[in-house]
Amino acid sequence: MASLLCGHHGLGMVCRSRSQATPLVKTHNVQSSRASIIVRVTQQSPDTRTVVTKNTPGELPLPWSEKDPYKLPLSIEKVQRMLFSLGWEKPWIEQIVDRIMKGMLRTTEERARGVIDYLVGVGLKQDEICNMASISVVLLGLNPETRLKTVVDYLKGRGVPDSGIPDLVLKHPRIFEYRVTEDGKNLKKGKARIQVDVVPVSANGETAAAVNYFREGASFLEAPVSPVGPMS
Q1: Tens digits of per-residue pLDDT, 75-131?
Q2: pTM for this one?
Q3: 140 near 115, Cβ under 8 Å?
Q4: What's the CA gap between 137 and 64, in Å, rounded?
Q5: What DSSP letter does each residue of 149-161 carry, written as one string?
Q6: CB 36 within 8 A of CB 56
Q7: Gap between the Cα atoms of 4 and 24, Å rounded
């Protein structure tokens, strides 16, 4: 008896004898043992290839897998390349990319570069901005003019000198997530408040910026956030 060569073909089994030129096709139903996997074949436009996206029941497909699950969207890749060009370390760049993919951070190359350029202009170094962005999830997505500049102007208005701005915002990296209140005395984020005051620290005239966190309507004696209340 001639030996047979067997192989899967679609949903059937193809067997071919070495001594025969005509293949014999036998079709039968196949019960998949991986019933928990859903396979969806999406036909893209003629100039792109067909992509197979696999996901388990109830799991949404990843937003960047619609065309190619192994390649970043161009908009995110531009942010990645820009951060690399500025000398940011790979682990921190991967963290930024991951946040964008998960929808935790909404930004573009232009917006992220605008934030970085503004903070450099204030006096911060690249590694310091990187540290701030690793703590403040939304930092690279904030508008430099309406969010960053207004906070810096508030700090200057409260008496913080230009030379003291970099150190203050570096120690309080989430301060740019707050907005200036209508009366200009505090920064607000929901019910949370920040008040910055320049206070004397020595008899020879040295001063320091005191940053106080509190919640609107909360008594400092009942539920203090900072050791002392803000100055009036």
Answers
A1: 899 999 999 999 999 999 999 999 999 999 999 999 999 999 999 999 999 999 999
A2: 0.64
A3: yes
A4: 20
A5: HHHHHHHHHTT--
A6: yes
A7: 11
- Residue 44: CA count within 13 A, CB half-sphere: 11
C-alpha pair distances (Å), 135 with each of 93, 126, 185, 186, 194: 13, 15, 25, 22, 18
DSSP count for the chain of H helices, then E strands: 6, 9
Helix, strand, coil tally for the chain in percent (to 5): 35, 20, 45
What is the C-alpha separation between 153 and 180, in angstroms, rounded? Answer: 10
| Interior angle at CA 230, CA 227 and CA 231, nearest 5 | 130
109-122 and 74-85 are packed helices; what angle lies between their axes, rounded to 10 degrees? 30
- Please compute, for residue 206, the number of CA atoms within 13 A of its CA located in the half-sphere on the CB side: 4
pLDDT in tens for each of the 232 residues of the chain? 444 444 444 444 444 444 444 444 444 444 444 444 444 444 444 544 444 444 444 443 444 444 445 567 888 999 999 999 999 999 999 999 999 999 999 999 999 999 999 999 999 999 999 999 999 999 999 999 999 999 999 999 999 999 999 999 999 999 999 999 999 999 999 999 999 999 988 888 888 999 999 998 765 555 545 444 444 3
What amino acid occupies position 69?
A: P
Beta bridge partners of 9: 12
- Give CA angle at 153 (201, 207), nearest 5°: 10
Amino acid making up residue 181 = T
